[in-house]
Amino acid sequence: MRRREFVALLSSGLWLLATRLWAEHHTLSADPLMVECDLASLTGRYTPNEDFFIRNHADPPPAGQPQMIQVAGLAERTLSLAQDDLRQFRLRSLGAVLECAGNAMDSGAVSNGRWEGFSLAEIISLARPQPGAAFVNFYGRDGYGRSVPLERAMQVGLLATRLNSQPLGRLHGYPWRVLMPGWYGMDSVKWLERVEFASTPLANPEGAYQQIVRQPCDDVARGPLAHLQVKSIITRPKQNAVLGRGRVEVRGLAWSGAGQILKVQASRDDGRTWHSTQLEPGPRSEWTRWQWVIRCDEPGVVGLTCRATDESGNTQPERADPARLDGYANNWYHRVRCVVV
Ligand code: MTE
């Protein structure tokens, strides 16, 4: 579904090349709403708000009601915060990738945005959690809830109110949401209405967003998902693209929850030989754009592959781990096949 229009530029009587002005959107599900956009259409460092992926589990809550955040549970003080009360906290801004844990290698459930909001650490400190509080449970007005270790919420959590210099859109949590930079998107609870300190995490009877690893003797081990796994993808050329002979710009993105991307290597022979790519690094919680220029002078199939390494030394695995049964945190080598004619 196309959402914006191309504008052709008329200059000196000639139609010049039109700039891409919108992304191709894919609605994966209408109910609950899940929308992705084609990452190949990205032109800047940040994903425009109207192209930002959407992952809802239920209908978004009705707009227009007065909003409050209740802070309670194992804490010395209970708080009831309205928009004006947030002014007491320091305004913060940071760039960060948001990736859905279920984002497949060829999907677009990942976006990069410039977020503004308030440090969760300041809000939590005002409530003064009791010593037994190990988790903080976030509840959205749509009934969705997630538990996050208290320490992590204190270290990185943001109560985000703006995205790319605009108030958060209705589908992205207006008027506020949690943002957990460096962690998969399910913990970044939208339409936040309640924050509760607890000694144990929320029950998760359906086992959603868990890592499930096959053990010897047909047993399985379940556990929480780790931080965003190091990942790079090729955004151009697209899968199955037909290319003319000559110069080809291979472009892509890379990110990790364990620090800056140190290198992205790419291959044009299905991973037999690897080459360095040119990185355009950004702040550590954002994605890094990368580029590799090659010549394809012979007709035939070209098997492009990429892999990234982060500053903690993590590198993408070559293939999916056959012991992983959950389908989350997909980050193996990204492969794109195209044909030169
Ligand atoms: N928060 C609420 N209240 N309801 C939801 O359905 N989905 C979660 C998270 N927060 C969700 C939520 C998931 S799984 C993801 S990946 C991100 O929101 C997606 O955020 P976005 O739709 O703004 O991109």
Please tell me about this protein's structure.
- A hairpin with a 7-residue loop joins strand 23 (278-280) and strand 24 (288-296).
- Helices cover 4% and strands 44% of the residues.
- Helix 1 packs across helix 2.
- The protein is globular.
- With 341 residues, it is mainly beta.
- The chain folds into two domains: 49-198, Alpha-Beta Complex (Sulfite Oxidase, Chain A, domain 2), CATH 3.90.420.10; 231-340, Sandwich (Immunoglobulin-like), CATH 2.60.40.
- Strands 7-6-15-10-11 form a five-stranded mixed beta sheet.
- Ligand MTE binds at residues 52-57, 98, 100, 140, 142, 144, 172, 185-186, 188-191.
- Residues 52-57, 98, 100, 140, 142, 144, 172, 185-186, 188-191 line the site of ligand MTE.
